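step: validate -> pass
step: tokenize input -> pass
step: predict -> running
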Amino acid sequence: MIGWLWLGLPLLAAFAFWSGRNRALALTDSDRVEIHSLPAHYGQLVLVWAALPPLLILLVWAAIGGSLVDGWSTATVEASGLLGADQTAALVIADVHSGMSLFDGEDASPAHGVARAAIERARGLFGAGLAVLVAVAGALGLSFARRRITPHLRARNQVEKILGLALMACSIVAILTTIGIVLSLFFEAIRFFRLVSPLDFFFGTEWSPQTALRADQVGSSGSFGAVPVFAGTLLITAIAMSISIPVGLMSAIYLAFYASERMRTWVKPVLEIIAGIPTVVWGSFAALTLGPLIRGFGESVGLDVASESALAAGIAMGVMIIPFVSSLSDDALNAVPRSLREGSLAMGATDSETIRRVILPAALPGIVGAFLLAISRAVGETMIVVMAAGLAANLTANPFAAVTTVTVQIVTLLVGDQEFDSAKTLAAFALGLTLFFATLALNLVALAVVRRYREQYE
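step: predict -> pass
step: emit ->
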């Protein structure tokens, strides 16, 4: 029932738009007067009045509907008197939702049968009531909006005001979501630092977060020195950036200024296709092809290379990021006004001098943005590191050694059944909060650099 209501909402919106538009057209035909706004604006206004109330009702139901059904069903199960000695109504309802209450098509207990029937009945009753409420709200909104249509109604102004409020609401949601993420990380990190000293976390050189479930087990304390984790992140990111930034920027310069139109027509789409390759494919390439190749080359020259190395992960990650840097930098270079280039050439500068001294500084904000996106992609990459660099937290600058990164450790700490009151699990939030502030600092520095050089060309 609820699904049909969601499917019917676009149909209601389309009918409301058609009805409002035709109503406006009828006014111009019958009264021979000019209307304030375009007929489409009247249709959009009716659409908002007809579809917005039902949409709000459905959103409220999506938020609280499950709790209402479970509350009704729980009261029914408790009133039935069929609960066993080791059963609770909430547990029985959870079994029915998860499908664990059926064995060979039969209910596990009489209480489960009552719960199943109660849930179905509650969904039917609430669904019917919701359908009536949605229909009444849509009809009232449609009727009210149609009656308001007159030649002097400023439909366009009202529609633009509604759109402005909707955009403001989306912005507020984005801001509140970011604040909520930061606060959740912050409070969970505070819980972690109550168990582990911040000095040990930020300056410790041993990372072994495995803790025992009981105090009498070996290794129950764990080690939470995050320096090796962040060192591995910086090492792999540095390797990736040393490949992706120069190659991506040089390829963007070639495409923007030296490549023929035919070459650009072919190369640009190929870069976009490469950018869409899943990271697991790059990880497989690094683990099955690139890693053994690097190890074999190292052994041939007498170097000790691990099967899973930072170099293999960094190279694969760098090649993966090249299309992002190249495409974004190419867009930034092409956005520079052509008059700057022509003026430089008219003054006698060569193409390379024009690119180096005029175009690149003018396009610096976009290029820096491309570099920041590349660094963020490298820092946040997980699959390639898991498959090609391993999980070992080693404090080393040797690119041939196995290392790990912050994101890999966060995933490892939160996988499986975990208790969110142990230092092992809470360490993931401390890592995430630290990574957040490190990325924020990097963005602030980049913005300062961009602002400094941008002023010369405004």
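step: describe -> Residues 39-80 form the longest helix (42 residues).
step: cleanup -> pass
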